[in-house]
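Reagents: none. Just compute today. Cytoplasmic Zn-finger protein BRAP2 (BRCA1 associated protein).
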Amino acid sequence: MHVYALSLRVTRPAKRHLPLSIFDKLEHEPSLNTREFKAPSAALGKTAKDHRFGPIRVDWVDFENKEMENGADLGKGPATASFTATSETKSGGTLISEGIVHLYRTDPSASVVDDYIEDDTVLAVLAIPAWMTISDFLTFISPAIDGFMHLRIVRDAMPSRAIALIKFRTSQYANDFREEFNGKFFNSMEPETCHVVKVSSIKIETPDLVTGQFPPIPGSATELPTCPVCLERMDTAVTGLVTVPCSHTFHCQCLSKWENSRCPICRYSQTAILSGSQPSNRGRAASSANANLLTSCMECSATSNLWICLICGNVGCGRYGRAHAHAHYQVTTHLYALELETQRVWDYAGDAYVHRLIQNRADGKLVELPSASITSGSSGLDTSRGLGPGPADTMAAEKVEAIGIEYSYLLTSQLDSQRAYYEEQLESMRTQLASAYNKIDLRSQEMEVVDKQRQLAEKKLRDEMEKREAEAAKERMKIEKKAEKALELARKFEKELREEKMVNEGLLQNLAAVKSKSEAFEKEKAEFLGRITELEDQMRDLMFYLETRDKADQDGGELAGGSVELVTQPKASSMKKKKRK
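Predicted 3D structure written out:
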């Protein structure tokens, strides 16, 4: 069983968000403008422009995860031919960026398929017909739409090429859808069938910012080419393929519809082989003009002085134009290029035309084949003179046939050498890229370790800061409480101080009053003491008088009947007497 991988290689959009996964939530753009994607992004400045790049559009439908009313077997009922958008579905369209869609088929022998599949709920419908619209496709798959989670229809620069990516809710829904719709006709009137395959991975890749190169293709994956006629993927496991002698491959049905016997790809680079008649100069000029109108430079659309690469078929203008053919050689190192006008082959390594030699039948010598312009010019003159083809024309046709065979051998050998050279270069590049990716992985691991250490250090620092902040907050609260208590004590002390001052003032006033009273009392005391002294003197004198009188009365005699008079002495004398006592 083959497993497929899808890769969207896009440029980095300047003003758009690039989703990481195709099933991420996408924006809806009502009016899609593809002009902004005509020029390549600046991120690809170091790589050669790929003419296959174009705008990649994604039409999306998201289904809400709702409960099923009829149980788990709801998607196995009879088919209904209608699809109705409900409130549980969201749809729209968006432009991802400029790029190209690559589809790879993995080698089953490389690894076990079940181990390789990243998500077994993703399927892809490889080729949706160009005549089928999104509504028609939803109607076609409506019997199993209850198991859908996301639907993405990817379209690249080719409008007739589309791939549908479906993500189911469970792997059982995916298996049922694949069994029911794989190989089923889209329409009873058309031959196209539905090709459902398993998808291992879907990647959106962008060029590296340093080298400008896209990641390498996995060694076990093979990219599926596209048919040049129908532009659909060519896969031998899906449909039959046919390879023509010029090594170009097509679908069998596509080549059967091609009525012309020439190759649909390289028919513009071939000239008509003369067999029986030679066209006139006027007809040749007209056909050359038509060929120039059909063929143009892939880079600048020039129609003159064109060269085609004999290795890959790239058409570019010559050195006298914008030298896109020489630029193609510098990028790819493809040595040989064919000038469309003269049919001469240029060797870039030798920087000269390739001398094509043929063997002359007359003498067996090798002679140089003249250019197609000289041959056709001389043949035109001969034809104007004669009435029909002659022996010279037959000889020229045989020479052209012989040189064609010889040129085919030369081209095959050069292609083999180029293939071997490029395989060796690719293998060397893969080895270098693998080594670079290993180094990137190591650097990424180191960065992850450093990032984890940084996160741990930041977390530790943050925890310590939070702890310190908490401690500081606690200390601040304690200090604030102490400050409040100190303020309260200060207010209390200030109040007590005021009260003490008032008490002191009252005491001082009382003390002054008491002092004044004490002085007055001392004065009064002194006065009273003076009076007491006088009274004591008087008392003593009176007692003396009384004692003397009583003594005189008792003794009788001379002193009887006498009178005693008290002599009042001055105060000073009294004081002296007192002192004497």
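The mean pLDDT is 74.
Action item: order primers for follow-up constructs.
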